[in-house]
Description:
Protein name: Phosphogluconate dehydratase
Largest sheet: 8 strands, mixed
Organism: Aliiroseovarius sediminilitoris
Family: Belongs to the IlvD/Edd family.
EC number: 4.2.1.12
Radius of gyration: 24 Å
Domain Dihydroxy-acid/6-phosphogluconate dehydratase C-terminal: 406-597
Number of helices: 22
Amino acid sequence: MTLNSDLLKVTERIITRSNDTRQAYLDKINRAAEDGPRRAHLSCSGQAHAYAGAGPDQDRLAEGRAPNLGIVTAYNDMLSAHAPFATYPDLIKQIARDEGATAQVAGGVPAMCDGVTQGETGMELSLFSRDVIALASSVALSHNTFDAALFLGVCDKIVPGLVIAAASFGHIPAVFLPAGPMTSGLSNDEKAKVRTQFATGEVGRKELMAAEMAAYHGPGTCTFYGTANTNQMLMEFMGLHLPGASFVTPHTDLRDALTAEGTRRALAISKDGSAGFTPAGHVLDEKAFVNGLVGLMATGGSTNLVLHLPAMARAAGIILTLEDFADISAIVPLMARVYPNGLADVNHFHAAGGLGYMIGELLEAGLLHPDAKTIMGDLTAYTQDPKLDGNRVRWEPGPRESLNDKILRPASDPFQKTGGLVQLSGNMGQGVIKVSAVDPKHHLIEAPARVFHDQDSVKAAFKAGELEGDMIVVVRFQGPRANGMPELHGLTPTLSVLQQRGQRVALVTDGRMSGASGKVPAAIHVAPEAADGGPIARIRDGDIIRLDADKGTLEVITEGAMDRPAVQVDLSANTDGMGRELFETFRRAARPATEGASTLSWRRQP
């Protein structure tokens, strides 16, 4: 199928925009690849330090001829999504030995759960944990004794941080190994119903706790299509996972076989491997990021990736803008309905045909770059499904028809003709809105502003019965420089109740919502943020705001509103406690949300 002309235009625009920074990046990693791992160049003392903990692999490492894999793991046993990684290193090491190679755990990275920290102080460290993960991964790989890297991570900031690190060490191959989703428990729709009942006082905390425990009940990622599962989708669309690996549940024979096969693949694409040298920096090119954007739109993925993808891309010398997101969204059909954009969970989506079916459809429609380099060669390999053959994996052609058209539809007959994300611009700045789960009758909201400086104040006003009538709730001073840009997902039940009462309501914020946000229109990531004196800091209660998702506009229409001085507030309460004092440098250094809100200082376009 001929490549869609608009997709080609966006790709060429990104290539042109990124020409200087991308070439500088490629020159850097190509020089590093020529030099190779320093293992053989270390002093005898240095090598002894590097191999002292390697047990039975010491002799093979000392010989320096066989490939050595570096494992970077986000394992911890507090979080269900990462608990399965406990057994991965031993399996990886044994497979490497069987292949005549070695593997070492290069280092661990933190993995926090936004589900635990929602509405809590710790959430103010969440977004910056992405940059900490990238930095920690770089420390792990800095010993420069590895021929390829295996990255074990799943959730919200973990995968983007690991991708930034993989790009920074782009002279060696990188293979990402997922853990998979937990098996289906209480449906996401039932869980949301109980949350709403709790918000209105119809049920108590005991009933709420029982529902939450029935939904989040075992190892693996949460089953709704939030940021964690969007990350997993992205790794397939961008060619860093094995085909079909994303949504296989933990502790199954196929899951273990895919982990073993991922280890073999990392060895095969190392410098002297059998499949040809495939450095991560060559996989992470402009076509890969365009394919990732297509996957985001076709699946109705998390808005958090609007922050993460530009940060990930810049680590590889590629510059993405909100215009790229908007233009891709305009040409990519929404093919999936997965909660919160439907009743199904990711296990149902996978059973209906999953990513293999979707990638095949989008390739046929000319909406993906088929020749994008991947760890498997090119993207066409990702139309296949993994099957067990003994204890090994074989790939078979994936389904060419959806097995449940209420969950997954062909590109020719989608749920919506365009993707789930819209760029917003106007006199209030720039932002984005996820519309895939928003009823079209709520795409246009024009109403008076109710202004708050934190989400707790919104909840307090709700409980006091003060949120009457149509309104646009403005929650500001929630950007990266103000307080680390915590998620405001805790507002979803409150705003949903107002909407269900028949009020026309929307949210406008310089903060962010999670991938679980849905039916209430939310203009998020508004930049410049209030802490930088952005237009959102000039809004007062009663100002009329017009949010039009169909036209892509966000404007205050009250005359003179933008002529006022920006409101300034005391943000000192956000600087101490729960480790926040250690992140002061991050808050000061954070780039705008439109550039990924990153603190890292890689080379940028002037």
